[in-house]
Amino acid sequence: MGNAMDINKLWAKSSGETIEEHTNKLLDAFNEFKTLYGKCFDEITLKTVEYACKYHDLGKCAFVFQKMLGNKAYTNSIPNKKELEKMYSEMGFEKNVPHGNLSPAFISNKEMKAELGQEMTQYLYNAIFFHHNRNRSITPSELDMIYDYELKPLYNAKSKKYMSKLFNSEIEECDWVKYAVILGLLNKFDYYASDTKEKSDVEINGNYNGKYIGDYVYEAITRHYKLRDVQQYALEKHNENIIIIASTGIGKTEAALLWAGNRKLFYTLPLKVSINAMYRRIKDKYGYSGDKVTLLHSDALNELIENNEENDANIIENAMIKYHASKLLSYPVTVCTIDQLFSFVYKYRGCELILASLKYSVVIIDEIQSYEPEIIAKLIYGLYIITLAGGKFAIITATLPPVLTYFIDKKGVYNIPHAAPAQFLRNDITRHKIHISEADDFDYDEILKYGKTKKVLVICNTVKRAVEVFKMLNSDGRFENIRLLHSKFIKKHRKMLEDEIIRFAESENETGIWISTQIVEASLDIDFDLLFTEMCTADSLLQRMGRCYRNRDYKNDSPNIYIVNNKSGYGTVYKYKEIFDRSFDYLLQFNNQLFTEKDKMQYINQVYDTEELKNSNSSYFNEIKNEINRRMHTPPFEFSKENAKQKFRNIVSYMVIPESIYNKNNSEFERCRDVLKNKSKHSFNEINSAKMFIENHSIGLGNFDPRVHERCNSFFEKLEYFTLDYKYDFDEELLCGIGLDYDKDEESNFL
């Protein structure tokens, strides 16, 4: 890198840190990373990343950039200072210039092609040029001027012809993946080198006392037991992509963690509550240090604060540091929602760090059948891209509709390599006997009768119905131990209810009734004696059954699962009517019979039979197929990061504070609002405490309904928080109430 002037002594940061000092930090991070994960990459890729680190910031030598950093000793000494000021001003870069766009000018194309080859050299140019995602890049004519007037004469730049090598939306998929991995690693090291709050290592070392998560789980199991068949299978297949279908209680979670072994792991689950529980399980049950495992979802910061292990005055700040490192995907084990990882299927600029991380990691998809078809399609396409990058995946689930295996195998064009799906069922116990009622509503007297001697769970398809059932069972105050749980409680009260239902389910002698919605299907590890449920789709129904006789053998003649087909939520919550109808029709063959694990697999296979769904032009089947095709044929760089994140979940949501809650805590809400409006006057901890208070007293509404929104008053519109004049009912001492009550004319937000 011989230059007319020593470019490396110029500033990279306003602190006076030089380009050379900053670059050396990146190279230190690169070498540390190479020690940990170098075996996951070929030598030519690693060499390309190393060159990206060396060259990425040389464009900061630009006069206007040094001026912006405050390097007056340098900028005042430039002989053609006025000419450069005029040139940058005319371009609209009088305050700054996209330095990454200039850095490739210092690469010798001929020398780099000789060492890396043409393909990798092109990836290198693009990674450096786009390592900051700017709204505007320089044009070829602007580059010509900057090169001729500054870069060449002052710094002996090598070339200005690299812009013809930049990728556009016509880039092939395999090229985009290779390029994204290089750029993602460059950004990872750059974030580390630039951020004083980052941990001391770019990748938090997973080799904790010489052991990884797989070692901890293996020791925990074999200390008292032999590995179960599913766990032995997972160990044997640790180098393959796998699909495991296993009954509840058979040890499939441990199997998944054993499969992950000594590799960086992302464990995905559908719900935040499940993620929080899995995070605590890995820490507490297996003794895997909280310094090595983290969680990542939209409310992860609050959870990290609540579970902070330090118990010192800097709880919020420590949690924020961990949360920041979590977002950079630095931990050996991350438990997360899929939208935190799989948004890269939109191939937006800025997603490269995710894909780069997945190349040297393994991903576990738990309970894939819980997702809507559009999300399933994105998952399947994402698994293809991960495999293309070199990562590994495991699908671990209690039920796997065969239609999903069809798309994983075919995907329209590609086959995703994986071991044949392996099935592990519990044949030692039969947990359920079902009864399908001919009535269109529950037998409330029967529920009340059983509630006096047993733990009874009632699951409804909508919040509206759950509230109605709760009111029916409480109509004359005949029974006190009746509780209600759904998604329309403020966060604080919902957490209290979730803790209470778990405590109740684990108690030995307590009896009573809990009414809930599908939020208990997979999110809470509870075990009740009887289940009364509204009919739903097969996958949800089996999840609901898993909340009753979870690990017990049912030997009574009377049913322990009672089902009413009142079509609540039909076409709304369960919008695929054909799947709902098929679920009911195929269930009838098991009415008033023991429902074995083998029966459940047969049932799922019948409801989601691929050929029948294809031939019937099923909207469920077609939505998966069409979304996969959209993702396959959508070129890179079409979406912004914000659009991609929103489209992945396809949700427009906002938070509401019930007016009664707001009025009760008026002064504290006003104080929090003042903190958020005047952040510059408040500390880091004060700002986050204010956010947490508001969130803990708010309810998320997932469906934007103008009729509901009309009754909202802006509380802090910048964060989409509103007060809502609906009634709200909850007794914190009795842990009982109906939550946010719906208006009969405004029900769409209360499904």
Helix and strand arrangement:
Elements: H1 19-37, H2 43-55, H3 63-69, H4 72-75, H5 81-91, H6 99-102, H7 109-116, H8 118-129, H9 140-155, H10 173-194, H11 213-222, H12 229-236, E1 242-246, H13 252-260, E2 264-268, H14 272-284, E3 293-296, H15 300-306, H16 315-327, E4 333-336, H17 352-359, E5 361-366, H18 373-389, E6 392-397, H19 402-409, E7 422-424, E8 432-437, H20 444-451, E9 455-459, H21 463-473, E10 482-485, H22 491-506, E11 512-516, H23 520-523, E12 530-534, H24 538-545, E13 561-564, H25 577-587, E14 594-595, H26 597-607, H27 610-615, H28 619-633, H29 641-649, E15 654-658, H30 659-664, H31 666-677, H32 684-696, E16 699-701, H33 706-709, E17 712-716, E18 721-724, E19 728-731, E20 736-740
Parallel strand pairs: 1-6, 1-7, 2-4, 2-5, 3-4, 5-6, 8-13, 9-11, 9-12, 10-11, 12-13, 15-18
Antiparallel strand pairs: 8-14, 15-16, 17-18, 19-20
Question: If you had to describe this structure to a student in words, what would you say it looks like?
Answer:
By secondary structure, the chain is α/β, with parallel strands linked by helices. The strands form four sheets. The chain has a seven-stranded parallel sheet, with helices on both faces. Helix 1 packs across helix 10 (173-194) and helix 31 packs across helix 32.
